[in-house]
């Protein structure tokens, strides 16, 4: 058996990023096992006196659409439209799922009801970014004849309206072999390509699919042999044997830190490096990858370009906690960060955060971050001559949130607040200096004397102020706390202020 194998450099080309410009016209039919993902977050500070187990002090809870629903959410967050087809039970969890789906702008949900089944619920307990425990509530594993009929009616309608079909198999019964046979026949009759995120040991049930996306462990199980995910040749051989045995066009093997391998029926293989810079949680990463892959293919991209886009998307999502989604903006920013890291290593200049002068534009950007489950912090000031005190506030603010916006007073505002001799540096210079700081994600130049309007527009999760204020006296504190956010006061470092620095400069020049 001979194959042609290429290991592609991470920066070989970035044309694949243009795929998302066509996602708005794409519709993906997502069919599979939907579930409710619950996350319980808190802190562990002691061991239970009743048993040698940690005690989780609960601080907050989140509930999201999981399983095939998370694949649909990723399709929607990428800018495409999703038709989600799945089965639920006649229970409260199903009602909660429907409410969550109704809040999604780009997802149409068609949930068949199995009166003999139950909605799948997974609950994860998380402390200090680490999962302690997961509890599962699964359905019976098989569908009634009535549920099967209802599912297939929804499948036919969704497939007819879609450009591509995504099968999200979590092994919970919706994609059982007899049902899969009917679904594949429907897709074939409609001429729709099928992308599969598989779970079954026997991949022959997915015969007729365009591409499968098993991870390294799933690939080894399907191949019936131990496979070192770091071994390009071993992964390629196993993938090619499965492709040819079961009539797939391609197989995309995800290999964790060792990247992604794309194998075609013609024996070609392309190995792409992993893109994640820091891994916090792999929950749902496969959903993100297969959703981005389906969108890329439906948008007219080549398989390798679509896989590169999907690989970049997965590299972003594993840096988030919980079942998460990604946006084209984040993927582009991550790709730019990769390019920047290579540039800096070669002696180039580091990245700068974006600078905007519109609260509405800042709110649009931060709303995207918040939709992806990221907490947004805001701090503000004149930042005329950047000093150690400023850096202390900014550093502590960024440590307390996922994304930090630094709002800087415009020149006219500084003159009103500080007098006609200030600012020493104009607003563009001050903003550029702030944007170069690693802890800053966005800089907003604002014309008002207080940040009240921009805080109302951005609605941050965290408001940070340097000084000796009480939290309730900080401008905008009422807006932040009313929506469950918090206010943090960072004491000023003694001996560090722009006014004192300017005074010393003036004295030395006398």
TrEMBL record:
Presence of the UniProt keyword Calcium in the record: no
Top class in the EC scheme: transferase
GO molecular function, one term: kinase activity
Domain Carbohydrate kinase PfkB intervals: 28-329
Region of interest (Cytidylyltransferase), ranges: 378-510
Chain residue ranges for the region called Ribokinase: 1-349
InterPro entries: Bifunc_HldE (IPR023030), Carboh/pur_kinase_PfkB_CS (IPR002173), Cyt_trans-like (IPR004821), PfkB_dom (IPR011611), RfaE_dom_I (IPR011913), RfaE_dom_II (IPR011914), Ribokinase-like (IPR029056), Rossmann-like_a/b/a_fold (IPR014729)
Domain Cytidyltransferase-like: residue ranges: 378-472
Protein origin, superkingdom: Bacteria
Pathway: Bacterial outer membrane biogenesis; LPS core biosynthesis; Nucleotide-sugar biosynthesis; ADP-L-glycero-beta-D-manno-heptose biosynthesis; ADP-L-glycero-beta-D-manno-heptose from D-glycero-beta-D-manno-heptose 7-phosphate: step 3/4; Nucleotide-sugar biosynthesis; ADP-L-glycero-beta-D-manno-heptose biosynthesis; ADP-L-glycero-beta-D-manno-heptose from D-glycero-beta-D-manno-heptose 7-phosphate: step 1/4
Residue positions of the active site: 287
EC number: 2.7.1.167, 2.7.7.70
Amino-acid positions noted as binding ATP in the UniProt annotation, renumbered to this chain: 215-218
Known partners and oligomeric status: Homodimer.
PANTHER family per the UniProt record, alphabetical: BIFUNCTIONAL PROTEIN HLDE (PTHR46969)
Family: In the N-terminal section; belongs to the carbohydrate kinase PfkB family. In the C-terminal section; belongs to the cytidylyltransferase family.
Stated name of the protein: Bifunctional protein HldE
Organism taxonomic ancestry: Bacteria, Pseudomonadati, Pseudomonadota, Alphaproteobacteria, Geminicoccales
């Amino acid at each position: 058996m001979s194959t042609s194998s290429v290991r592609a450099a991470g920066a070989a080309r970035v044309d694949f990023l243009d795929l998302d410009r066509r996602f708005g016209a794409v519709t993906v039919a997502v069919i599979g096992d939907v579930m409710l993902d619950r996350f319980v977050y808190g802190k562990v500070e002691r061991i239970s006196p009743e048993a040698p187990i940690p005690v989780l002090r609960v601080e907050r809870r989140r509930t999201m659409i999981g399983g095939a629903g998370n694949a649909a959410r990723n399709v929607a967050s990428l800018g495409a439209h999703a038709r989600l087809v799945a089965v639920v039970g006649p229970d409260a969890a199903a009602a909660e799922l429907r409410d969550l789906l109704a809040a999604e702008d780009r997802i149409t949900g068609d949930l068949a009801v199995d009166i003999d089944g139950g909605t799948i619920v997974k609950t994860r307990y998380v402390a200090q970014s680490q999962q302690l425990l997961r509890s599962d509530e699964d359905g019976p594993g098989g569908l009634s004849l009535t549920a099967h009929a209802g599912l297939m009616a929804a499948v036919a309608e969704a497939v007819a309206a879609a450009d591509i079909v995504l099968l999200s198999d979590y092994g919970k019964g919706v994609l059982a072999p007899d049902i899969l046979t009917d679904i594949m026949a429907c897709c074939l009759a409609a001429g729709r390509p099928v992308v599969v995120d598989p779970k079954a040991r026997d991949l022959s049930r997915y015969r007729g699919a365009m591409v499968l996306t098993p991870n390294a462990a799933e690939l080894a199980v399907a191949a019936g042999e131990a496979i070192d995910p770091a071994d390009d040749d071993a992964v390629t051989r196993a993938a090619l044997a499965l492709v040819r045995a079961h009539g797939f066009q391609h197989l995309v093997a995800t290999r964790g830190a060792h990247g992604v391998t794309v194998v075609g029926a013609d024996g070609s293989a392309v190995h792409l490096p992993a893109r994640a810079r820091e891994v916090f949680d792999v929950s749902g990463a496969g959903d993100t990858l297969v959703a981005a892959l389906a969108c890329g293919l439906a948008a007219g991209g080549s398989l390798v370009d679509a896989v590169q886009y999907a690989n970049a998307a997965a590299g972003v999502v594993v840096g988030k906690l919980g079942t998460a989604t990604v946006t084209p903006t984040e993927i582009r920013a991550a790709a730019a960060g990769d390019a920047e890291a290579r540039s800096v290593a070669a002696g180039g200049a580091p990245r700068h955060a974006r600078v905007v002068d519109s609260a509405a534009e800042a709110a649009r950007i931060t709303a995207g971050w918040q939709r992806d489950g990221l907490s947004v912090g805001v701090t503000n000031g004149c930042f005329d001559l950047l000093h150690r005190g400023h850096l202390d506030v900014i550093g502590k603010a960024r440590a307390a949130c996922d994304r930090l916006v630094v709002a800087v007073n415009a020149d006219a505002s500084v003159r009103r607040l500080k007098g006609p001799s200030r600012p020493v540096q104009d607003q563009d210079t001050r903003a550029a200096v702030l944007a170069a700081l690693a802890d800053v994600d966005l800089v907003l130049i604002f014309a008002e004397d207080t940040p009240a309007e921009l805080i109302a527009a951005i609605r941050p999760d965290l408001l940070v102020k340097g000084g000796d204020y009480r939290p309730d006296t900080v401008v905008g504190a009422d807006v932040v706390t009313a929506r469950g956010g918090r206010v943090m006061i960072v004491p000023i470092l003694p001996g560090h202020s722009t006014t004192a620095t300017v005074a010393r400069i003036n004295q030395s020049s006398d």
